[in-house]
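Colleagues,

For the teaching module next term, I've prepared a clean inverse folding example: a structure given as tokens, and then the sequence designed for it. I'd like students to try predicting residues themselves before seeing the answer, so please don't circulate the second half yet.
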């Protein structure tokens, strides 16, 4: 099996470097080169001696994926479809603004959760992505412009691929590489209660976003099937533990579906729950490009809902749409516009 080089830390690379008879400092040098130059093949890795470069180039694949499709929006959003060595594909999206360059990454090929409004959930999960495959989504776009923020909001449930996601977070933060602050990384979960607690222990500086979409069990179980395993009450307990540990503000993501979760009662439940946790709410008008039974609300309906949430004590903002002209939907991205 080909090693996951882009998923290696400097310590992991030291085994390779030492086995090749090179001094230990070369491992960190190699790590820095991979993360700053994003070479696709070992033939390009000029910090390695020529003979070793050629030997490794013949023996190993370096980049875990290649871009097989690219769409560029008028607003600068770029969606890339990456194909990995086994032919599986996942999307990542680059979202530039004046002051930020956010990458929305996928953590799995497909998704097991099956939210009724999401394209990724329609096909089920095919496999987890390796840490290097997650890193490559970021580094692929880092070439174009330095990346400042990462959101795990592409296809997949990140907390179902916990070890690889955790590893990628740590690689992103490694000072020998991108050195990205944990506070600039958002992990979005549909509600894996046990792992929310674990993330609070392992990486308390990372921002947690809960894809809530309904604050009552009846509605949420319809929209997010995972709610039948960990319901709103379980989530409240997990969020309480998490909030006590990390003391940081979390975000609730709420896709606005005209036909499902926008009654005055839904707004009141959402506002109350957010107030309880001091959570910020992102209201995301449903993007109707996805083939699901749901309907996009009118702007008046969105504003009325936001006002009702505010009246119940919730602090909410309505997200604008990025990449609409290219259908920039990596799983839920079209729903989440995650440049915040
Ligand atoms: S919204 Fe997220 S958790 Fe739900 S099916 Fe899509 S990718 Fe999976």
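(Answer key — instructors only)
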């Amino acid at each position: 099996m080909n090693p996951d080089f882009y998923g290696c830390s400097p310590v992991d690379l030291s085994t390779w470097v030492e086995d090749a008879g090179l001094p230990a400092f070369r491992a960190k040098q190699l790590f820095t080169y991979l993360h700053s130059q994003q070479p696709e093949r070992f033939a390009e890795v000029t910090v390695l001696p020529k003979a070793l470069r050629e030997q490794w180039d013949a023996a190993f694949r370096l980049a875990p994926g290649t871009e097989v499709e690219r769409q560029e929006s008028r607003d600068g959003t770029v969606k890339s479809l990456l194909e990995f060595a086994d032919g599986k594909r996942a999307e990542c999206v680059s979202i530039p603004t004046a002051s930020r360059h956010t990458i929305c990454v996928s953590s799995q090929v497909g998704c097991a959760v099956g939210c009724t409004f999401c394209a990724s959930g329609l096909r089920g999960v095919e496999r987890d992505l390796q840490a290097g495959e997650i890193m490559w989504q970021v580094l692929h776009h880092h070439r174009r412009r330095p990346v400042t923020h990462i959101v795990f909001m592409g296809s997949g449930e990140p907390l179902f691929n916990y070890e690889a996601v955790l590893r990628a977070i740590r690689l992103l933060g490694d000072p020998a590489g991108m050195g990205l602050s944990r506070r600039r990384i958002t992990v979005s979960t549909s509600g894996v209660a046990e792992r929310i607690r674990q993330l609070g222990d392992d990486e308390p500086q990372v921002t947690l976003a809960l894809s809530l979409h309904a604050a009552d069990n009846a509605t949420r179980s319809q929209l997010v099937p995972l709610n039948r395993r960990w319901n709103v009450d379980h989530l409240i307990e997990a969020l309480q533990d998490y909030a006590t540990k990390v003391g940081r503000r979390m975000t609730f993501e709420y896709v606005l579906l005209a036909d499902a979760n926008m009654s005055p009662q839904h707004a009141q439940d959402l506002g109350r729950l957010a107030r309880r946790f001091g959570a910020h709410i992102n209201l995301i008008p449903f993007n109707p490009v996805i083939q699901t039974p749901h309907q996009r609300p009118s702007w008046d309906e969105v504003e009325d809902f936001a006002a009702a949430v505010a009246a119940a004590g919730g602090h909410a903002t309505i997200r604008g749409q990025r990449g609409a002209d290219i259908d920039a939907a990596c799983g839920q991205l079209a729903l989440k516009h995650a440049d915040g």
